[in-house]
Automatic annotation (TrEMBL):
Sections of the chain in a coiled coil: none
Signal sequence residues: 1-28
Record-stated family: Belongs to the sulfatase family.
UniProt cross-references to SUPFAM superfamilies, sorted A to Z: Alkaline phosphatase-like (SSF53649)
Name of this chain's protein: Arylsulfatase A-like enzyme
Matching Pfam families: Sulfatase
InterPro entries the record matches: Alkaline_phosphatase_core_sf (IPR017850), Sulfatase (IPR050738), Sulfatase_N (IPR000917)
Listed GO MF terms: arylsulfatase activity
Keyword Signal: yes
Domain Sulfatase N-terminal: 45-371
Amino acid sequence: MNTMNHSLIVSTLSVVLFALATSLSVCAADENPESTADSALPSTPNVIMLMSDDQGWGDVGFNGNEVLQTPNLDGMAASGVRFERFYAAAPLCSPTRGSCLTGRYPFRYGILAAHTGGMRVGETTIPEMLKKKDYRTAFFGKWHVGWVKADEVSTRGFYSPPSHHGFDEYFATTSAVPTWNPTVTPQGWDSWGGEEGEPWKGGFPYVQNGVEAKENLDGDDSRVIMDRVIPFVEANKDQPFLATVWFHTPHEPVVAGEEYKKLYPKSGKARQNLYGCITAMDEQIGRLRAKLRELGIEKRTIVFFCSDNGPADGLAKKGVASTGGFHGHKHTMYDGGLLVPACAEWPGVIPPGTSTDARCSTVDYLPTIAGICLGDSAIKKSLPIDGVDLMPLMTGKVDMLDRDLFFGYRRLVQGIDGKAIISGDWKLLQEAKKGGKTRLYDLSKDPYEENDLSAASPERLSVLSQKLAEIEASCQRSRDGADYRY
């Protein structure tokens, strides 16, 4: 048996046992027909969207990693729903991030790779929708869908901060920072960003509501972020709020504090840093979950978690980071680049111990949150939305989703034009590299994409190729202005 599969079975059993041990009150409510989740559903629940950066499917306890310590994420999965097959809209950061906010494929809104654009104000985002119902909205962490400093000049991208897209408050960086001491280039780092020991990218990367932040920026970067999240939650405990928290962890430069590295004495240096910074992030997620319970608002707060794509190329190839056995990694159209760890928690609404292998995606966040907080009518009919409402799936009313999923990553100047479509159990992909081949896989029989059926199944190849072309053409019309008034 595949080692990760064996670990996954063990992890799943532990999740169920944890749920049974810790959720008796929720179960009792479920058994009482007069105390159903639907009848107790808040009309304006709080929404928290958590996202890690470059965390592989196999780099979390609830997906079977027996070494990496993520007790709070494991607790979330146990208390709510664990998504076994949750896909990022693209195999890298910026395109996926936009999909989380818009419910649309990256090829629709024109962010096709990292640092190649910025979020257009014509897009309708989750915070813009929720503000119409008097939600307070805030963003924390890595933005990466536009510059956050007005005077920042670059050959790629443009100024498009969170405040242009519905967020009342923000504490954000444009892109990556070291995961420990985020303002300083770490020891031994010899790539982009700066010289060892010098200021990271020449200065202070965080901007808070338009002003460069210069206080409380030392130590674990996830703690630096959460120190801004907690006051926002406390200040808005009596009114509905949206908190979008996008951690930098575990994106390179991957650095952990000594106390976190010591948790993994038998791991190599690279894995000590990777595991250490993920555990530090998990600790801050636990801090947030504890605060919700302290304030007594956990039952009117839904919390989502996912990664933005698979693990970084180098860390995956060296076996430091894990895709859980799935082929590929970040920057590839294989499932190792697209499948990410994901879960959601809403005590009293999402049954504890829920697990689904239905294929879900980051494009599903907007229609799900709109359905929960506003109703389906809140979505503009003139604006194509590619996601679906996941609440019926998360509450056990349906088992599967009948839809196709499209993924893309394009940087034509480098010959990169990666695309993929999943239709039913079949996946067609065009490799994201110059001269990349077209591949066809039956994921029901070949989840690790080892047996290319493009030559053996020409009819299936033709059908999926046509579907892919139709979706891409629709996205190009959106990207060229069909969805906006000029």
